[in-house]
Amino acid sequence: MTFSDRLSRFGDEVFASLDQQRLALESEGNTLYNLSIGTPDFIPAESIRKALAEAAMDPMNWRYALRDTPELLTAVCEYYLHRFGVSISPDMICSCYGSQEGIGHIGMVLCNEGDTVLLPSPCYPVFMAGAKMAGAEPRYYPMTKENGFLPKLEDIPADIADKAKYMLVSLPSNPMGSVGTPEFYNALISFARAHDLLIIHDNAYSDILYDGEQGNSFLSYPGARDVGVEFFSLSKSFNLTGARISFLIGRPDVVAAFRKLRSQIDFGMFLPLQKAAIAALSQPRSAVIEQCRQYEERRNTLCDGLTDIGWPVPRNKGSMFVWAPLPSGYSSSMDFCMKLMKEAHVICTPGASFGPLGEGYVRFALVLPPHELKNAICSIATSGILKGDHHE
Ligand SMILES: Cc1ncc(COP(=O)(O)O)c(C=O)c1O
User: What does residue 151 show for φ and ψ, rounded to 5 degrees?
Assistant: First the structure.
């Protein structure tokens, strides 16, 4: 069987060897601290689960939904207004099965084969996959420590920006945990205008910012709605990760084109999930704020705890990830992750899996409570992995 050329654009699973080692350690009865996957351990509010369960009991809700219900669209509009002060209309909204799916497909809406797109490096993997799916040519803009892990717009060559169909920007960022500033977003909008470029803003962590910072919508900045769209996910704010609910929001022409592509392959979001989304969007904000506080406590525990045992890890500003430079003496993030798992029973993600600029780092997901993070830190300290005699 010969498979498509499209399929050959995707590499092999980089995590296979990490996974094998994890399974072997688990089968020997070891307790592992798994900080590799960004799926929250927090649970959805009872009101959300109830809304889903009750709607699922109604047999009429098992038909094809075919569209986003007016009730759901109203709930999204009201949420954007109250949460972000952004007034949107139903023609500016289209649901999708998670931002992952939406970003995976949007390249096909916007690009022809060979078109240029601008992506961050390091990069959340579906950004690359979406470009490849569309046959687009990714050009990467660096997000380096020297610039606070933010895009440096003035360093993007003008001819590449002129050619690019879209620029994907995702802040708070995964894996680096950096956070956008109003100055950055205003400059981004001017940049998009100057180069006739569509901005796709991925706002997966709009409710996970620390040190008193408030998350925002890209669309809240003047002029943003003329140059961009935003993916708004319910996965992390409301812990609906497995339910796969997200929305593309913004410029009506782009949203209509996205809806057109999706309608070729999809019959609409399961109606009980639409009810769950409405319940999530209508719940009081206090639960989301409290959850962010708990993420912050985890961040402090992990970053400060690792620093205290001789592995200096700066505090990230947002997202549910800590981006840790490799301890001194190590240079391969994959080798270090294998060793950390084997010797300290702590699992994290090699920075190299986010692209070449991710090498030299590992990513920890803040998916365990502080007392377990402390145990993980103790395990790292006692393993001796940070000591000179264990180095590569
Ligand atoms: C930056 C970023 N975008 C998108 C996603 C996927 O979100 P969703 O669950 O809505 O598909 C993630 C998940 O970790 C993410 O980190």
Answer: -65, 140
Q: How far apart are CA 195 and CA 200, in angstroms?
A: 14
Nearest to 54 by CA among 310, 275, 334, 340: 275
The reply to whether ligand 1 has any atom less than 6 angstroms from the CB of 216 is: no
3-class secondary structure for 31-58?
A: CCEECCCCCCCCCCCHHHHHHHHHHHHC
Does ligand 1 lie within 6 Å of residue 100's CB atom? Answer: yes
Query: Does residue 131 fall inside a structural domain?
Result: yes
Find the 232 Cα to ligand 1 centroid distance in Å. 9
Q: Does the beta carbon of 235 sit less than 6 angstroms from any atom of ligand 1?
A: yes
Q: Whose CA is nearest to atom 14 of ligand 1?
A: 38
Cα(104) to ligand 1 centroid in Å equals 11
Asked, for residue 391, whether it belongs to a domain, the answer is: no
Give the residue whose CA is nearest to atom 6 of ligand 1. Answer: 100
Interval 267-324: pLDDT, tens: 999 999 999 999 999 999 999 999 999 999 999 999 999 999 999 999 999 999 999 9
Which CATH number does the domain housing residue 21 bear? 3.90.1150.10
